[in-house]
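Course assignment 3, question 2. Fill in each field.
Student: A.L.
Task: Predict the tertiary structure for the chain below.
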Amino acid sequence: MQYDILIIGGGVVGLATAYRLKESKPDLNIALLEKESGLAKHQTGNNSGVIHSGIYYKPGSLKALNCIKGYNQLLEFCNRESIPYELCGKIIVATREDELPRLESLYQRGLQNGLSEIKKISGTEIKNYEPYATGIAGIWVPYTGIIDYKDVCAKYAELFTNRYQGEIFLNQKVINIKSGNNICTVITTDKTFQTRLVVNTAGLYSDDIARLTQKVDIRIIPFRGEYYEVKKDKHYLVKNLIYPVPDPAFPFLGVHFTRRQKGGIEAGPNAVFAFRKEGYKKTDFKFNEFMGALTWPGFQKVMWKYWKTGIGEYYRSFNKTAFTKALQRLLPDIQKDDLAVGGAGVRAQACTRDGALIDDFLIYDDKYVINVLNAPSPAATASLSIGETISQMVLKRF
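Answer field:
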């Protein structure tokens, strides 16, 4: 089977890229390959369903630019295609004096990123937005919303296949890629495809796919985020979304409370090193993936640098009392018995050889392959913008 473009990975970035490419140039022959029996099974299908505003991201970074542009594109898309969402807003709460400078920095970033309606709130004013939350100061972010990204992915797929006659092949795990003579041969577990260009949006396995065609000096390190569900009789404690002030040195937002678009309230996640790339349970283990991460020089440096933080995250992972205590910083009334074990997601975190955890989007452009090697949050919010960016890179070749 021969195509102009093959996209590897059926998450939100791959599907948005497929949709954007066909939207821009419908006559291109495009197929998307997904190793699972369905779409959006991993990072996309296990995230918290937040529409991010862009307040956290360094002005001018790919994250900031794509988030803000993608935010507007996503809302327009959802309105046009009748996908339900809600702009409920969130508060970011400082609970200690040493967090106030970071809170002010976040506020300034938000303004620089064009979020003119964000608002500083005092400790007393926090109660106006979240009556049971406690802090010494905060920021009200009215732009933040909630959505189910599986619904978004389903619509991308529907438009790609039904409107534009793109093809999606499920159960197609890529095992090799061979290139030469201006053609790329992609070999899966049971089929062979030929294409002029491969777009790798394989998420947790994007580095493995990339290494089939080029030397890549980064490694995807899987971090599991574990959630608790707030029991129904305590839903009144949380109106919308309550977040802490994040640690700028660590690419995770800290445990928080999130109301889900289809019902329920999540508390979490923590962030622990997963012992396999799709390790959703504490007991999940895959030797080659575990050793691949553990022997990576960059991750060894990360472990040495953040060992105290890592131990704290693992402690909360195995100790519900400790997890509850972290949540009580934001919501003192929440108790251990108010929480039931929820789901988990695994984040694909790119790590360089010298120990940097890549915090921005990372795309490698090669002759036969475009490798999307880091697409962390807010990739779902920014998916249409990222898909447009990748499409522009692709279309230069056609």
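Instructor remarks: Residues 257 and 267 are 5 Å apart (CA to CA). The domain at 2-46+150-217+360-395 is CATH 3.50.50.60 (FAD/NAD(P)-binding domain).
Grade: pending
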